[in-house]
Amino acid sequence: MEVLGHRELLGRLVSREVRAKYKNSSLGIVWSLMRPLAQLLIYYVAIGQFLGAARSIPDFAIFVFTGLTAWSLYSEIITAGTNSIVNNAGLVKKVYVPREIFPLAAVGASGFNFVVQFVILVVATVVLGQAPLHADLVYLPLSIALILIFATALALVLSALNVYLRDVQHLIEILLLVLFWASPIVYSMGFVHSAIGGTVLEELYLANPVTLGVLGMQKAMWMSGSEDPAQYWPDLLWLRMLVAIVICGILLLIGQRIFSRLQSNFAQEL
Questions:
Q1: pTM summary value
Q2: What pLDDT, in 10s, does the model give residues 98-155?
Q3: Contact partners, residue 119, CB within 8 Å, separation at least 6
Q4: CA dihedral defined by 169, 173, 175, 179, rounded to 10 degrees?
């Protein structure tokens, strides 16, 4: 792949993306934690306490923060990836580099932010005496791989489409808001199963790779959920995730082909 010959440039672009986000900020990288922590506080109070979810979901704070960590990785890749070509219009028009390098740089920067947030999650589990030292930790790499592959596939296609139709970036903001509630981040899978369990709707719900990624992250990091028999986990979750990874891998190849077809007129459109 041509991008491999530009690994150094890719690294520089990732570094630039990270530094630019916190340029002239006195708190710097701390801001990458403020949004998820603010979301955690809002959902913990509004849904956990006011709506009583915390009474039915043990260690609700860890449950929510785990879901938010997985979701943040996905949403940041999609948002930054969609705008990556347009935001680098100057470089695209002046020099030739593999155009895929720009959405991939967005993936790298989002991955950096994910690592920071994940470290906070790990520290929180240790402080609360819920360190995820159990066999289900094997779901963690499956979850990360699934979210990364799926989000990268979408980012490639969306970044190309956004060059020709700028409304794409605004549409994505709305879709992400809807998709957030289509995954068990602030409510448990048990709630979904009790409502539509055993139906085609549940299978469609579980066909969403982000939902599987969130469930995998929860299975790995949320000790109370794995130990509580009242919590519902889909049968053969690991197999569902493996199948989804393979399918998303195919989507990634298709996404790259679509990107290659559309990139020829980037400079003119920008």
A1: 0.90
A2: 788 889 989 998 998 899 889 888 988 898 888 888 889 999 999 999 999 999 999 9
A3: none
A4: 140
